[in-house]
């Protein structure tokens, strides 16, 4: 079976290296020598951050990635808008749009998605997120508690799929109400996007079991992932469905292990490791079970980047140097390919990879690591232009 491998397009700036604070783009102040927007002489040029994201999308496509994730947080561009622009810049790259169903009407979302499917030739994929609670969730004006957010997500997808493929569709739920919903025929014949479903709690697994095509997890120690997958597989089987799994993970690969770990060391040295509030407090602000699992994996009392190496080629401090998951893969090209291959043997069917800076690392990982991954098939399903 083909392993679908996605890259990540940062929708909120792209640092030039893990050790940098300022990003490429207008998310931090521009300065002479920065790019996207860049500078020509003493004035900004006309190269926008959207142009930079388009460069990343083209790099991912050229380097053999199946698609690209567009994240969605309070501090990002809107992935629906950005994906529609990037679809015009690429030919085959799929766009995995991250969104919280609670903030969209499911009928409107169906029309919007079907229109984008039609315009892009069927290249839309969903990353369904139900929210991590805490201040970030309140930013959206959402006060619904953890388990109810997943019940709302389930209702959203019930309606979303029903209106798209079972018209006229009516529904009376706790969160959504629809009467005789449907799509125009040219939109209704588009395929519903594949669904990657995030969430580590029992409520998340129940919702994923009903609707997801891929259960998506951040990287964890392999034994922990094996146990999580077994639990998900068993619960999904009770619903009469078969689980498939995806892992989101950063990859820092260089020609030698020494070079790779030197990049981590330089990032660590640029980080104020005396700030224990940051060191041990990140991801604790909400009720995300996955985030809490990541924090629990970070060794206490770390005083060196080496203290955060928790397994061969696995470093647990990435979220100290940039937002997102803590665990990532570090090593030479063969090491990185071996760890990804180990995950495939463990049961992973798809990956969302990332690296900083995303433009250069898309080429590096795509050209140096992916060809070494055992069992990877480079042929992609034929897209149909509508």
Model description:
With 386 residues, this protein is an alpha/beta fold. The chain has a single domain, classed as TIM Barrel (Alpha-Beta Barrel). The chain contains 14 helices and 17 strands. The chain has helices spanning 49-62, 79-86, 106-120, 134-139, 146-165, 185-188, 202-211, 222-237, 257-270, 276-281, 289-297, 318-321, 333-346, 358-369, and strands at residues 4-8, 14-15, 23-24, 39-40, 43-44, 67-70, 94-99, 124-128, 169-172, 177-181, 194-198, 214-218, 245-254, 309-311, 314-315, 328-332, 348-354. It has an eight-stranded parallel beta barrel with strand order 1-6-7-8-11-12-13-17, surrounded by eight helices. Helix 3 crosses helix 5. The chain is globular. The two termini are 27 Å apart. The model is unreliable at 278-284 and 377-386 (pLDDT under 50).
Please tally the helical runs, counting DSSP H or I stretches of 4 or more residues.
Answer: 14
Strand count: 17
Largest sheet: 8 strands, parallel, barrel
Radius of gyration: 21 Å
- What distance separates the N and C termini? 27 Å
- Per the CATH scheme, the topology name is TIM Barrel
Task: Trace the largest sheet across and list its strands.
Answer: 1-6-7-8-11-12-13-17
Task: Name the CATH superfamily assignment.
Answer: Luciferase-like domain
Tell me what the CATH architecture is: Alpha-Beta Barrel
SS content category: alpha/beta
In CATH's first tier, which class applies? Alpha Beta
Helix share bin? 25-40%
């Amino acid at each position: 079976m083909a392993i679908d491998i996605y890259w990540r397009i940062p929708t909120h700036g792209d640092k030039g290296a893990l050790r940098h604070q300022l990003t490429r783009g207008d998310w931090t102040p521009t300065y002479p020598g920065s790019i996207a927007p860049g500078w020509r002489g003493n004035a900004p040029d006309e190269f926008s951050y959207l142009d930079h994201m388009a460069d990343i999308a083209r790099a991912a496509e050229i380097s053999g990635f199946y698609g690209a994730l567009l994240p969605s947080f309070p501090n990002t561009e809107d992935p629906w808008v950005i994906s529609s622009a990037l679809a015009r810049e690429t030919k085959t790259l799929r766009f995995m749009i991250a969104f919280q169903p609670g903030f969209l009407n499911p009928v409107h979302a169906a029309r919007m998605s079907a229109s984008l499917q039609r315009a892009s030739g069927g290249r839309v994929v969903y990353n369904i997120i139900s929210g991590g609670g805490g201040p970030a969730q309140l930013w959206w004006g959402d006060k619904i508690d953890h388990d109810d957010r997943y019940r709302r997500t389930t209702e959203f997808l019930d309606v979303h799929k029903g209106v798209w493929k079972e018209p006229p569709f009516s529904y009376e739920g706790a969160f959504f109400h629809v009467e005789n919903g449907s799509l125009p025929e040219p939109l209704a014949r588009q395929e519903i996007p594949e669904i990657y479903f995030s969430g580590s709690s029992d409520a998340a697994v129940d919702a994923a079991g009903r609707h997801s095509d891929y259960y998506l997890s951040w990287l964890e120690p392999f034994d922990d992932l094996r146990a999580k997958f077994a639990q998900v597989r068993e619960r999904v089987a009770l619903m009469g469905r078969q689980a498939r799994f995806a892992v989101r993970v950063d990859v820092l690969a260089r020609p030698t292990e020494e070079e790779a770990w030197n990049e981590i060391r330089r990032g660590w040295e640029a980080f104020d490791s005396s700030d224990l509030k940051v060191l041990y407090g990140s991801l604790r602000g909400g009720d995300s079970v996955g985030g809490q699992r990541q924090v629990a994996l970070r060794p206490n009392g770390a005083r060196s980047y080496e203290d955060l190496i928790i397994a061969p080629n696995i470093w647990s401090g990435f979220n100290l140097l940039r937002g997102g998951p803590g665990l990532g893969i570090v090593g030479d090209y063969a090491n990185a390919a071996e760890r990804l291959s180990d995950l495939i043997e463990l049961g992973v069917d798809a990956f969302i990879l990332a690296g900083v800076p995303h433009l250069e690392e898309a080429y590096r990982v795509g050209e140096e690591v992916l060809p070494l991954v055992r069992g990877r098939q480079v042929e992609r399903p034929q897209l149909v232009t509508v």
